[in-house]
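Example 347, ligand adenosine-5'-triphosphate.
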Amino acid sequence: MSENQQHPALQVNKIHVSYGRQPVLKGIDFCLEQGEILCLLGPSGCGKTTILKSLAGLISLDSGDIKIKQQVVSSASKQVAAEKRNLGMLFQDYALFPHLTVADNITYGLSKVAKADKTKRLHELLELVQLYGQESKYPHQLSGGQQQRVALARSLAYHPDLLLLDEPFSNIDNKVKFELIEQVRDIIKKANVAAIFVSHSKEEAYAFADKVAILNQGVLEQVDAPEVLYHAPKSEFVAAFMGAINKVTIANLAPQQRHNLKEELHCAERVGFRPEHIGVVTSDAGDPVAENQISAILSSKRFVGSYYQLKLDTPYGAWLANYANGADLQVGQSVNLQVDWHQAIAL
Ligand SMILES: Nc1ncnc2c1ncn2[C@@H]1O[C@H](COP(=O)(O)OP(=O)(O)OP(=O)(O)O)[C@@H](O)[C@H]1O
């Protein structure tokens, strides 16, 4: 095993950061392997940009430390200058030089490299970001996605140890965004560089990141693969942040519902389940309710494309359900619900 594979590319150890007397990061702790992509995700003001600035060396720490490739770059007593951290950066506005060609933009940071090596690296990078043949063009002659790939090639030019991406897809048209995300992900994987990505969008995080770190008011709630965050959130905040969730207090559940819960949930106080885990059975008012079903009234419905999102008044409160045949349902009608309790999670 090589040196790089044995040690994480990045270690963030219990960092605390304040602006004046206001604590903003409260003990953030995570690691990243070489070639791994982590997304920082959370509501506005939770501290995503502050983490990125701490990694970039633009903000000093109150305590804790940051190591890049085993070297401490930030601690309460040490601050390696931003330009000495060997970081690549990619921002939402590409920040390409409009008067320079693609080739000159890409090699901008390689001024101290010998000409032959620079040309070799340029060709490798053009190949990597699939812009061969475009090297003499100027930024305004390229699409937004192509410009972002030029910016990415520039940020990878000097083999950074860590790539920082600050909302790089937010200015890209939705129609081509996910294609670009896939391309950028492929490029980062080929370059085998560790990358930290800040985003507001769950969908971008799902498509781009290997792991997602969910932040809440300066605290890291959970770091996991997107599927784990969605299906096995460790807190109610993460559960709700990752998508709609129906909540129930177990003590209120009828015994025939409660006994379908997984055994390990029997000692939880509250459980939640996703709207896709409710089956909807239409019924006529007055029809008997089957033992495993719950009767409810449809309070609203919303067409969201491949299904309808139903809002239901149930004996346990308002729930959401996803239902394909929503066109046939009338607001105000009674329906019976069958919850897949096996999918419920502790909150
Ligand atoms: N220079 C500053 N001085 C004082 N407080 C600041 C400063 N920059 C940010 N903050 C505060 O620190 C907290 C975290 O801000 P930060 O920009 O890291 O959040 P964020 O998660 O990136 O937010 P957004 O998603 O809106 O960009 C917020 O409460 C913000 O108001």
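Summary: The radius of gyration is 25 Å.
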